[in-house]
């Protein structure tokens, strides 16, 4: 997983650099922004995976030297849940529809006090 994430990130990074060199491209083009978004999503996913993998290795080593460390497995379960949650959020924000719906819901939530009459001057 980590090698494929890093390979994808490196490929996209080089591709984005090549596109910036061409005279007709600009950073504000939707295609280039989309490629940057995919690159950032890949980097975040690789960091999440690295953190989770390192925690598994650390837990294994600690269990060898200190068998009563996290005896019930609560810490390990929490790390796995955080990895899963982080992956879902990362992939969700990578989707245009999710970001648009999130922005829409945020704008509606900001309007609730006004609709209830709390911000009257």
From TrEMBL:
Keywords for this protein: Membrane, Transmembrane, Transmembrane helix
Domain of life: Eukaryota
Parts of the chain that traverse the membrane: 38-61, 73-93
Keyword Membrane attached: yes
SUPFAM superfamilies in alphabetical order: Family A G protein-coupled receptor-like (SSF81321)
Protein name per its UniProtKB record: Uncharacterized protein
Organism of this sequence: Aldrovandia affinis
């Amino acid at each position: 997983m980590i090698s494929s994430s890093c390979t994808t990130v490196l490929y996209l990074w080089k591709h984005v650099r090549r596109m910036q060199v061409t005279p007709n491209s600009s950073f504000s083009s939707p295609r280039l922004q989309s490629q940057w978004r995919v690159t950032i999503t890949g980097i975040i996913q690789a960091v999440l995976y690295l953190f989770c993998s390192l925690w598994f290795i650390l837990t294994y080593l600690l269990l060898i030297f200190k068998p009563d460390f996290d005896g019930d497995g609560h810490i390990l379960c929490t790390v796995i849940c955080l990895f899963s949650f982080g992956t879902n959020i990362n992939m969700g924000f990578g989707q245009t529809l999710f970001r648009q719906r999130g922005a829409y819901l945020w704008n509606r939530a900001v309007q609730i006090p006004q609709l209830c009459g709390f911000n009257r001057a």
